[in-house]
Amino acid sequence: MLNTTAIFVGIFALIHIPFTVFVGYHRARTGIQFFDGGDVRLLRKMRAHGNFTEQVPIALLAMAAAEATGAPRWVLLVGGIALLLGRAIHAFVVAKSGWGNGRAVGMVLTLFAIGWMGSIALFRALL
Predict the structure, then answer these.
(1) Which of 57, 56, 61 is nearest to 83 (CA)?
(2) How much is the pTM?
(3) Which residues 6+ apart lie within 8 Å of 11 measured at CB?
(4) Is 96 a residue whose pLDDT tops 80?
């Protein structure tokens, strides 16, 4: 059973919906159908959404692999919480200003989560 991973998959699936809606709403409001049309606010929303969809799936796969190999729940929670915080911080900064220290902090937390859970999965699989 991948119970802990399922919880985080559910959380991130629900978070994904507003990202998609924010981009779609902005497109509908501005009439920009493709790309960013030179609209910096749309570009920021697109990048926040894009970065989320680029990073979250691999992190959740690493979490599932770690859980499938019998990693303790606390290991999964550390990775999942780091990922959740990292994605929230990153998205907020990208959507608001596009850059800043918070963006770097968000990526560090995200990459920590991916590396943490990926390493645990690999280590446990090779035992």
Answers:
(1) 56
(2) 0.89
(3) 84
(4) no
